[in-house]
Specification:
CATH class of the largest domain: Alpha Beta
Helix content: 40-55%
CATH superfamily of the largest domain: Response regulator
Distance between the termini: 22 Å
Number of domains: 2
Largest sheet: 5 strands, parallel
Number of helices: 8
Order of helices and strands: EHEHEHEHEHEEEEHEHHEE
Strand content: 15-25%
Length: 230
């Protein structure tokens, strides 16, 4: 399926131009005329890329960008009349992938969108692991849980918990012994098996709190495994 672009722009004329050029290049589009709608559409539709204005009603572009970064890893291109270096630095600091100043050449915007999509899709194919309802982005060191009852939730994991989860996700349903997890996830420490048990207990608790009971389970006398929840 072609990539989906979310156009968050309160100026209808600008949104029409972006919409027309992106559709002509084969992308699917969805539009939001205010910040709150943009955040909600991003949460529900999980677009592949976001084109985001800064000055919008209800929530400005920086608020939207911050919310998007909490909800997922979709690339964001700021498209705004604000051309000061401080504006660009703030956007990049929060997590924007590119910054285009109005007035713009629509062909340049399309070229930038394609370039960002190519880069992020290549990165995803190399670094994103999916096991059942869990998505693990190794390059960004973040993990998300996506289940119908609670939607998409970012898991608050420590570095060690993330390492254990990512290592186990490469072979879902396989049982990992405590010794294996120590070798893979604690390479420079003298961790004991009970240390693994402590981290495993925390992981299980965090998954259960997020609504994924049974995803991370212990196997008596052996170790731990991930289960393929629907």
């Amino acid at each position: 399926m072609n990539a989906l672009a979310l156009i968050a722009e309160d100026d209808a004329e600008v949104a029409d131009i972006l919409d027309a050029y992106l559709i002509r290049e084969g992308l699917r589009t969805v539009r939001a005329a205010d910040g709150r709608t943009a955040i909600e559409l991003h949460r529900k539709l999980k677009p592949d890329i976001v084109l985001l204005d800064v000055k919008m009603p209800k929530a400005d572009g920086y608020e939207v960008l911050s919310a998007i970064r909490q909800q997922g890893t979709a690339p964001v291109i700021m498209v705004t009349a604000l051309d000061e270096d401080l504006d660009k630095l703030q956007a990049l600091r929060i997590g924007a992938d590119d910054y285009i100043v109005k007035p713009f050449n629509p062909l340049e915007v399309v070229a930038r969108v394609k370039a960002v999509l190519r880069r992020t899709q290549n990165q995803k194919s190399q670094t994103v692991l999916r096991v059942g309802p869990v998505e693990i982005d190794e390059s960004a060191h973040v993990a998300f849980l996506d289940i119908a009852e609670s939607g998409r939730v970012r898991l608050d994991l420590t570095l060690t918990e993330f390492r254990i989860l990512a290592h186990m996700a490469r072979a879902p349903s396989r049982v990992f012994s405590r010794a294996e997890l120590i070798d893979a996830c604690f390479p420079e420490s003298n961790a004991l098996e009970r240390t693994v048990d402590s981290h495993a207990s925390n992981l299980r608790r965090k998954f259960e709190a997020a609504g994924a009971c049974g995803f991370f389970e212990g196997v008596r006398g052996v170790g731990y495994r991930l289960t393929m929840l629907p």
